[in-house]
């Protein structure tokens, strides 16, 4: 039954205040500790967080950087991507994936997605490889890994780098391996709404190769290993101590939060099954961390409006695939070129999924979706 109390409920797509309240003592203490130190750029808090992240991911190197976008930029720079090179990626992702390629003067080459997982369709990569292709940049979208076996095999055959955009997939597994540790470099974002979110911008690059690790480390401080001596032209791309200390504190809770997200997702799965919406599909061998729980329906816009009227916030990731963005008009793509991505952009809707969401709130979301489809 829908009670008056539930009717007045506002359900956000996520609620960072609830998370903060649950760990406020730990966070406040560590923030005060950093303030007392008055040492803000890199330093021991960053190093200690990097060690824990390397350990968590099972990567040899974990390098804290200023954002997920800079993680991508630094990884591409470390692979020597430059003007005129081509990098193959997906158009169904956050802008930064392709934006970082373009910022280096390289060309993003978009390959359509698999309709089941929304990740790059590996069967379509081979025909996109040209003599100018230097790297593959798969994205582990919404929290589940792309088909890495096929991607790594293709890279090996063609002599290409693999950079994983793992911004949405921290802690996700693919056939026993962690997101971000399978390619030459793995890029993570600590944007506040990510599964491991900072209280500002932050990111991280993982690598296993010694040379790659050292290069990324130098590139994030203007290409310098010794202060004021520059071997490369790098960027200011450092993680700061305050964010590192906060992230380190939150990292201890990450697996528990991921588990809660999975429980929330399973509950949606069970109760939305049979309704005329496409539910998330998990590829064999994948462990999903549900950065987003995304359903799809041709009636998406009406459903979104209905839920919004009921106080339920939903989000469209992403309304315009990157090959049709205005800024990429120079690449020459037109509507219809990548139909699976375009259809996804018209039909996807992310439901509220965060570790602290209550059963009562979830029941209300489910009830309202049911209500929408039975009324129509
Ligand atoms: C969030 C995100 C990024 C960029 O991360 P920022 O920290 O916001 O710069 C890159 N790629 C994907 C897929 C993302 O979701």
TrEMBL record:
The active site is at 194 (proton acceptor). It holds the Pfam family DegT_DnrJ_EryC1. GO terms for molecular function: pyridoxal phosphate binding; transaminase activity. Gene3D superfamilies: Aspartate Aminotransferase, domain 1, Type I PLP-dependent aspartate aminotransferase-like (Major domain). It is an enzyme of class 2 (transferase). SUPFAM superfamilies: PLP-dependent transferases. GO terms for biological process: polysaccharide biosynthetic process. This is Strongly similar to pleiotrophic regulatory protein DegT. The keyword Transferase applies. The keyword rRNA processing does not apply. InterPro entries: DegT/StrS_aminotransferase, PyrdxlP-dep_Trfase, PyrdxlP-dep_Trfase_major, PyrdxlP-dep_Trfase_small. The modification N6-(pyridoxal phosphate)lysine is found at residue 194. Belongs to the DegT/DnrJ/EryC1 family. Keywords: Aminotransferase, Pyridoxal phosphate, Transferase. It comes from the Bacteria. Its EC number is 2.6.1.-. Transmembrane segments: none annotated.
């Amino acid at each position: 039954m829908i009670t008056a109390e539930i009717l007045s409920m506002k359900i956000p797509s996520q609620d960072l205040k609830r998370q903060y309240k649950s760990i406020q003592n730990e966070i406040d203490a560590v923030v005060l500790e950093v303030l007392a130190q008055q040492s803000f750029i890199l330093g021991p808090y960053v190093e200690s967080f990097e060690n824990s992240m390397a350990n968590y991911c099972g990567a040899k190197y974990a390098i804290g950087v200023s954002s997920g976008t800079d993680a991508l930029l630094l990884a591409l720079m470390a692979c020597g991507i430059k003007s005129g090179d081509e990098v193959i990626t997906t158009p169904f992702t956050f802008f930064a994936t392709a934006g970082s390629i373009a910022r280096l003067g390289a060309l993003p080459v978009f390959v359509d997605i698999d309709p089941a997982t929304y990740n790059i369709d590996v069967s379509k990569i081979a025909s996109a490889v040209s003599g100018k292709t230097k790297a593959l940049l798969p994205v582990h979208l919404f929290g589940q890994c792309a088909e890495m076996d096929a991607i790594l095999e293709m890279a090996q055959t063609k002599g290409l780098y693999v950079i994983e955009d793992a911004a949405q997939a921290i802690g996700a597994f693919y056939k026993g391996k962690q997101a971000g540790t399978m390619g030459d470099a793995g890029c993570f974002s600590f944007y506040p709404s990510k599964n491991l979110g900072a209280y500002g911008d932050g990111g991280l690059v993982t690598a296993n190769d010694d040379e790659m690790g050292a290069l990324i480390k130098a590139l994030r401080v203007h290409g310098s290993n010794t202060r004021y001596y520059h071997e490369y032209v790098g960027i200011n791309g450092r993680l700061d101590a305050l964010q590192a200390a906060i992230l380190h504190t939150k990292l201890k809770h990450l697996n528990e939060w991921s588990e809660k997200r999975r429980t929330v997702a399973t509950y949606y799965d069970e109760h939305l099954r049979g309704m005329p919406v496409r539910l998330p599909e998990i590829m064999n061998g994948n462990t999903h961390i549900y950065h987003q729980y995304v359903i799809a329906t041709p009636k998406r816009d009406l459903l979104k409006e209905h839920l919004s009227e009921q106080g339920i916030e939903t989000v469209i990731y992403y309304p315009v695939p990157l090959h049709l963005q205005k800024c990429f008009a120079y690449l020459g793509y037109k509507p219809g070129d990548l139909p699976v991505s375009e259809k996804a952009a018209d039909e996807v809707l992310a439901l509220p999924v965060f570790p602290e969401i209550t059963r009562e709130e979830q029941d209300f979301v489910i009830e309202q979706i049911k209500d929408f489809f039975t009324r129509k």
